[in-house]
Amino acid sequence: MPYREKIAWLSLVGMAVCYGPYFAFTHRSPLLDQPLPNLPLMALFAAAAGGNAVWTLLGRLLLRMNTPPDERGSADERDRAIDRRARGVAYYVLIGLALYVGGVMPFISTGWHIVNSMVASVVIAETVSYAAIVLGYRRGVT
Amino acid sequence: MTGGKLKNQVRTLRFLNGEMTQGDLGQKIGVTRQTIAAIEAGKYSPSLEAAFRIAAVFGKPLDEVFQWEAEG
User: Fold this and answer.
1) What is the pTM (predicted TM-score) of this model?
2) ipTM higher than threshold 0.90
């Protein structure tokens, strides 16, 4: 498996493990209806983001130690093509979600629900990007 | 004529050039071993520049290494 595909898998699992529980818990939590500044919610998010950062750092370190130097060199043209395509897909996902959060949610929701949905949009777009990278390596780019 | 597939003789040419490894070929043209494997498997269409570099490594014209197979 190419080094960059392993990194994409690592990131994908990290997103699911760290942000999955956060959004599952906060989705219908009364925490979203707290007044400003909503420190409990922000602390939960900081824990999820921090956990993801630690997971990614440790995972990358382990992958780096277990991959021969010639296989973890700089990205070649195929790596860049896969990355470009994945970011293209993620961009449209982010635009779609941002339009919903910014254009529709203000009419049907309030405050932290909107903020949390915007954060979720970024996380979803990032997850889609990693998933598209994995698919690019699995199915090919022609 | 938009439908079709890029075929290549990279695997055969590597064999005919003293069983050159995918890693060796990759190193010569500046891509990873996995990218050469993907090209051989038809999972990645190389850039024109990389295609010319591969052909140059084997001392062959481009159309002897890569062929376009139209659909239908």
Assistant:
1) 0.85
2) no
